[in-house]
Queue: 3 jobs
Job 1
Amino acid sequence: MRFTLVGNGRMGQQVALVIAQSGCHETAAVLDINTAITPDLFQGSDAIIDFTVREAFLANLPAMLASGVPVVVGTTGWDDRQEEVKGMLSDAGSSLLYSANFSLGVNIFLRTVREAARLIAPFGQFDIAFAEQHHTAKADFPSGTALRAADMILAANSRKKSVVRQLSDDKKLAADELQVASLRLGSVFGKHTAFIDSDADEIVVSHTAKNRSGFASGAVEAANWLALRHKTAPGFYTMDDFLNEKFAG
């Protein structure tokens, strides 16, 4: 497979390294912030892998979709525009796979958190909260992975109705609110933790990324999968679609 990379930051560089070491894929081009993005830049590629920032992704998306090449997006922070993006994708008849986190370990962790939230739902003595830690250069907070975890907890546990990202000095957390806390520290790659607490127990489910290789490898695998799926079933996909097929197989 030939991939065009949009974004030459830390994650883009790690994706390029994974492709170079794969022995079966190659990088067609790396487009950075100084590149004027046009549809012809993607011709000859099997998939596009985007790790940029919200503003760049949204600005570049029309050209990427117009190219007809399927797009894998690791850029976060644009969830409020997701329905608009889906409409653009449908109009273009192309394919896009979005994930806030492509790490297989993280996605197994998220499914574990969802199951834990479901299991404690009938038992009012158990409360749940979520926290994430990342390096100080990370632009968005909470992380896309934390927000994904929060959505999964709300869907699995009817006792939690809404997410609280920050507490004010004069407000206590309500029983039906799910706190999602963020910490920015040094060069931490990423740590996500679900805390479950009762008077008698504490359950902690946590995932710590040791480096960026897991994220990059997952993105390349997802891009390979999307390039094949795009030929017969274009559309909007998530990491869940990719993993469900893998786990079923």
Job 2
Amino acid sequence: MSSLLTPQRRRGFEILDDPGIDDRVRARSLADVARANTMFGGSRAVQSELESALEDTSAHSLSLLDVGTGIGDIPARVKETWRARGRAITAFGIDLSPSLLREARAGGIVPICADALALPIASKSVDIVICSQTLHHFEAGDAIAVLRELDRVARVRVIVSDIRRSWLAAAGIWLASYPLGFHPVSRHDGVVSVLRGFTPDELSQLVQRATRQTPTARRHIGFRTTASWIPGALAA
């Protein structure tokens, strides 16, 4: 899809995708991502979808898995928010980077070093599975494999949140990165991430191809889009 405001989706290359990048640079850049999540809507988009998901269950204790957790900022915020509402959430975070998982552990997340393409989690063993700003890192075939894994392990709800592709969003993150003091890697990767992002229709179609479920796809402030669905075995 392309228009005056929405460019064609392009792959690009994010520096943080290089497994050989220095751990200090990775941690610094992911800290910038966490700030951007707070300021520009990444955390709010996930929390908004969780509001709906948690209305569907009266359980006071739930498990949550964050795939591609980074430093665990989003599940940590989820735990804090829902603890104040009387819900106990045990949060697990999956990432390939041991150094990032150490930071996630410090934030109260149970770390699991694993690949999103082959989650070491039993089928239908986690209540809610989220995947935020991770899917755009994968080629189409691998993205479908990731979505199938999310659907496989979730019991109650799957929530995928990503960046909504837009020239305005690309220009905005570039310009905002200077006064916010973002690392140059964060600035570069932020723009590439936007141009790798999805429209709501694209994300919905990808979920349907992967799982045969029709998700609820929404736009959120801060150029975010989400797709949320009941996992396959429970959809009927």
Job 3
Amino acid sequence: MTNKPAPKVLVVDDEESILELLKYNLEKEGYDVRTAQNGQAGVDTAKKFHPDLVLLDIMMPKMDGVEACRQLRALPELAGTYIVFLTARGEEYSEVAAFDVGADDYILKPIKPRALMSRIGALFRRDSAKKSTTTQIKAGDLLIDRASYTVRHKDRDIYLPKKEFELLFFLAQNPNKVFSRDDLLQKIWGTDVYVLSRTVDVHIRKVREKVGEETIATVKGVGYKFNL
């Protein structure tokens, strides 16, 4: 992590012992770390700190993690921020709720620090690899710019959370090619993250609402494609 600013990580959890454990291990890996003990404090801190990654519990006082994630994803300045849930909630509906509001990963407690550091490192390495390739796509009236995580349609700027943006960018890079849900899960979420297939449908629906229903077509029984 030399010669460039250390990635910034915000840890939000109401358990002091968890905060101390994660802060110690993250700082040992060279990350710039801040902590918060409830969802509201996490959102307030993120607005000032602009983290590259947020580690977020679900069950917390004042504001739970799902609502905190929803509010973080509504902030354009955090469009490129990863949000990873660290929680003891193993129910499928909790996981679905987390991905529906824009989570990048969902990890169950108890936390294994070495495994967690490895997954965080993989997120940042994948991000660096993406940034080293094409950064801008012009498709009809759409201009999709990865460098600034912005989408422009004619004279209108459109805000997309990170995973919605990555999904649109990937499909636009491969116009008229059909990708199955499994293809998109692997390309956008990666093989080291378990995500339900309906998460792809939710993200496609949200992208369509913002950039136009006609932009991404459904190929019945197969998957999705970007229309050009």
